[in-house]
Specification:
Two copies of one chain form a homodimer.
Chain A (H helix, E strand, L loop, with lengths): L15 H20 L3 E2 L5 E3 H5 L4 H6 L2 E4 L5 E4 L4 H9 L8 E5 L2 E3 L11 E10 L4 H17 L7 E7 H10 L7 H10 L5 H12 L3 H8 L7 H6 L5 H14 L5 E3 L13 E7 L9 E5 L14 E7 H10 L13 E5 L5 H12 L5 E3 L6 H10 L4 E5 L1 H6 L1 E6 L5 E5 H12 L4
Parallel strand pairs in A: 1-5, 8-9, 13-14, 13-15
Antiparallel strand pairs in A: 2-4, 3-4, 5-7, 6-7, 7-12, 8-10, 10-11, 11-12, 15-16, 16-17
Helix pairs in contact in A: 1-5, 5-11, 7-8
Chain lengths: ~425, ~425
C-alpha cells in the first residue's frame, strides 16, 4: 500500500517548471505552423494493431510497441507514432478540402531502453500536408521546421536539416544491380550506419548485401548533388533533377540549414520520396531531433482514393534538450501573480474572497492567501511568489469595502475603496491574461 | 491489409473543426485558472497498477481500467483518472511551495460501454489545491469551476454545482447506527441513486443496509442546511456549521450556482470532506460534467508528510456536449488565412515561396497554393478558404520582385513592390498571430 514515489522508467512526468518550458516551446511551434495555415487535430492513443502492422515497419511494431489484448479481446497497441492514424483519418473524411495542412502534438509510446533523449512515453509535434504531390509541399514542411528552429532562437549552424530521396536511392541501387525487393533492406542498412561502430556496420552490411555493400556505403557518403559518382548512377532526368529543383525552393524559402545527404534513409517503411532529419551539429544530442518524409501510398491502403502526403515528427524532449545544450531557455508563463491577497483574520475571509474575484474580473491574476496567519508571514509569501502588489483585507477594509495595496517593488502602500483600487491596478498592470 | 477506416469504439478522434472547439474551450479554462495562479503539469499515461489499487476504488481499477503486463513484466494500467498521479508527484517533491495550485489536461481511459457523453478515452481538465486544509481552498476550486462556466457563456440556471460532505455523511450515518466500516458502502449506495430506477435502487439499498435504508434515503434527499431532520442527526458544532461557513465563502466569491445536496456522494474512495458535482439542469446530459472533492489522506500514502488536497476533474467531452445543447459555440481559431498566395506557373514558384515567407515574417498567415493551375481556380480556392487577400506571383511580378494583391472582400487589386505590399498588409491586417 505504499507504491513507489517514482513513475515507471521512461515515462513522461513534468513538474510545472518543466511544463512551462515545454508549453513555451509548443507556443512557438503553434505560431509558426499557424502562419502557414496548419490546423490542429487529435487522434486515439489506443489503436488496432493492424493499423501499424501494415506500414510502419516490423521492428517498431513487433519489438518496440506497447501491445496488449483489451477487455473485448482486441489486439491493440499504444501508438508508437502518429502518421498511420493521420492517414486513416484523412481516408475517413474524403470531403476534406485538399491540400490539407494538419498538425498535432500526440504523446506516443515505444518500449526502448531509456537513455538521454530516449524515453518510453514522448510527445511529438506532427506536421503534415496531405493531398499534394508538389515539391512545394515537401519544401513547405521543411520551411516550417526551419522556421520553428529560428523562432526558438537556435543560431545558424547549431542544427542542420539533411535530406535525401528514396526514389534517388532506388535509382542508384538499381544501377548497382540490387533488385527492388532488396531496396528496403539496403535503406535499413544505410539508416543504421550512424548508429553502429564503422567496422561492425561494414561486416553487417557485407553479410546482407554481399558485393554491393561497398557501393552502398559509397552512395551513403554522397553529400552533394554534383557528386560525379552519383550522377553516373542516378537515372538521367530523374530524381537528381527534382532534388536540384527542391534545393532551389528551399533557398527561396530562406532555409539555409538544409543540405543533401544520401546517408539519410529513415527507418519507416512507408516513405516513398524525399526523407529528411534535423540533427544537432554540436553532437551532444546524437538522436535526430526530427524526422520526416513523403508517403504517397499510405492513405490509399484504407481504401478510397489515394492521397499523397508529406510531413514530419519533432520530438519535444529531444528539442528541449537541444535548446538546453545551447543555453537557450524558452520562457514559458512567468507564474508570477499580479496580486497576492492577504487576509487579516478568518472574519475578513469573505471580503478577501470577494475583492479577489473583483480584481480577477479585470483580467488580472490573484493568488489568494488561504490561511489567515501573521500578516508579516503573508507579505513574505507574496514576495517569494513574485507578486507585483499585495492587497490586504483587514477589519477596517472589510467594513468600508476597501483594500490596502502595497507595491512589492518597494513603492508605498495605500488604502483605496475597491472600485478605485481596481482602476489603479488595471492602469498599473494592464490585462495580463 | 485494409484496416477499418474507423478508430476503436469510444476512442478520442478529433478532426480540425472539433479540435478548434475543444481548444477554444481549453483556452477559456486556462485563462480562468491562470487568474487564480494555477500552474500546469503533466504526468504519465501508463502507471503501475498499485497506484490506483490503493485508493481509487475497486470498481474503477478492477472492472473499468485498461490493464496489461508490459514487456518488462510489470502490471500496468492506463490511468483512469489523474489524482493519484498528482498525489505521487506532490509526495515526490516535498520542497514544492505550499499551497500549490496545479492544473492539467490529461487524457484518461476507462473501459465502459460507449454512449452519449461516455467514451473510453477522454480528456479532462484537472484542477487541484494541495497543502491547505482551509475551507477557502474548497471554495476557491468551486469558484474556478463556476468562473469557467461563466467564461464559456453558460447562463445562470443552465447548470448547478451541488455539494455535500463526507464528514457530514459520517456524522449522520453514525447517528443512524451504521458502523463506520459501513459508511463507504452507504456512500456508494447514495451515489448510485440517480443512476437506477427508484424501485430497483430501493430494493438494492434495503438488501445492503437493512433497516437503515429508509433513513439513508431520507438523508440523501436533504437539500438544505436548515433541514430539521438533518440538524437533529448531525454532530452539534460539527460539519453542518462548517458547511454554513462554506456557503458564505461561495457567496462572497460570487458563486450563485452552488447549493447543498446530500445526495452527492461521488464514487471515489479517497474523498474525506467536501464533495461536489456540476450538473446540467436541462437534463439532456445526465452524467455529471464535473466531479471533485477533498482528499486529505491521499498524498500521505506515498510516505513523507501528509499533504491535504482538494480539486476536481472536468470532462472536456461532456462539457462540449453541454455547451452544444445550449447552442453555445465557443469559437476556436478561425482557420482563415490572411493571404492566399497564388502562383502563375512553376517558373514563379520560387518567387511565390520567397514572397510568402516575407509576409509571414510580418506576423501574418499565408496559405500557399502548392499547384500552379489556372489563376481563376486559385482565386476560387482563396475565396473558399476565407483569405482576406490573394497575392499573385506571375512572370512580371517575379522579374520586378513585386506581387499583385487582390482584396477578397470585393476591393480592387494592385501590383506593389514587395516591401510596399508588406507595409500595406501589415497596416490592413495587423499581426494576426
Amino acid at each position: 500500500m505504499n507504491p513507489a514515489v517514482k513513475p515507471l522508467a521512461g515515462m513522461r512526468q513534468l513538474y510545472p517548471d518543466a511544463m512551462a518550458v515545454e508549453e513555451g516551446i509548443a507556443a512557438v511551434i503553434r505560431r509558426v505552423a499557424l502562419s502557414y495555415g496548419f490546423e490542429e487535430y487529435d487522434g486515439p492513443v489506443i489503436e488496432p494493431l493492424e493499423l501499424f502492422l501494415a506500414k510502419s515497419g516490423s521492428e517498431l511494431v513487433m519489438e518496440q510497441s506497447y501491445r496488449f489484448t483489451d477487455r473485448g479481446g482486441r489486439e491493440v497497441v499504444l501508438r508508437p507514432e502518429m502518421t498511420p492514424t493521420l492517414a486513416r483519418m484523412i481516408a475517413g473524411a474524403p470531403d476534406t478540402p485538399m491540400p490539407a495542412r494538419w498538425m498535432s502534438f500526440p504523446v506516443c509510446f515505444r518500449y526502448e531502453r531509456p537513455q538521454r533523449g530516449r524515453v518510453r512515453e514522448f510527445r511529438q509535434f506532427n506536421c503534415d500536408i496531405l493531398g499534394s504531390d508538389s515539391l512545394a509541399a515537401d519544401a513547405e514542411v521543411i520551411a516550417v521546421l526551419d522556421g520553428i528552429m529560428r523562432g526558438l532562437g537556435a543560431p545558424p549552424g547549431s542544427y542542420s536539416i539533411r535530406y535525401s530521396s528514396r526514389r534517388l536511392a532506388s535509382e542508384v541501387l538499381t544501377s548497382l544491380g540490387l533488385e527492388s525487393v532488396m531496396h528496403q533492406q539496403a535503406l535499413a542498412i544505410i539508416d543504421r550506419k550512424s548508429k553502429l561502430p564503422a567496422d561492425e556496420w561494414r561486416a553487417w552490411a557485407s553479410e546482407r548485401l554481399g558485393g554491393a555493400a561497398e557501393a552502398v556505403e559509397r552512395f551513403s557518403c554522397c553529400s552533394s548533388l554534383d557528386d560525379g559518382w552519383l550522377a553516373e548512377r542516378a537515372a538521367p532526368g530523374g530524381e537528381l533533377e527534382r532534388l536540384r529543383e527542391f534545393g532551389g525552393l528551399l533557398g527561396a524559402a530562406g532555409v539555409a540549414s538544409a543540405s543533401f545527404d544520401a546517408g539519410i534513409a529513415r527507418g519507416l517503411d512507408y516513405y516513398t520520396g524525399i526523407v529528411f532529419e534535423l540533427l544537432d551539429t554540436g553532437g551532444q544530442n546524437r538522436r535526430a531531433i526530427c524526422g520526416g518524409g513523403r508517403y504517397d501510398n499510405l492513405v490509399g491502403i484504407f481504401g478510397g482514393k489515394p492521397v499523397p502526403g508529406v510531413g514530419f515528427g519533432l520530438g519535444m524532449l529531444t528539442l528541449r534538450l537541444f535548446l538546453e545544450t545551447l543555453g537557450l531557455r524558452v520562457s514559458g508563463r512567468s507564474g508570477r501573480p499580479d496580486v497576492f491577497m492577504a487576509v487579516f483574520s478568518p472574519a475578513e475571509l469573505p471580503w478577501a474572497v470577494e475583492a479577489a474575484e473583483a480584481i480577477r474580473s479585470r483580467g488580472l491574476s490573484v493568488l489568494a492567501s488561504l490561511e489567515c496567519g501573521k500578516l508579516s508571514k503573508q507579505f513574505r509569501e507574496a514576495s517569494r511568489r513574485g507578486a507585483s502588489f499585495t492587497a490586504v483585507a483587514g477589519p477596517e477594509e472589510a467594513s468600508e469595502r476597501s483594500i490596502t495595496l502595497k507595491d512589492m517593488s518597494g513603492g508605498g502602500q495605500m488604502r483605496l475603496p475597491l472600485e478605485k483600487a481596481l482602476e489603479f491596478l488595471e492602469t498599473r498592470l494592464g490585462g495580463s491574461l
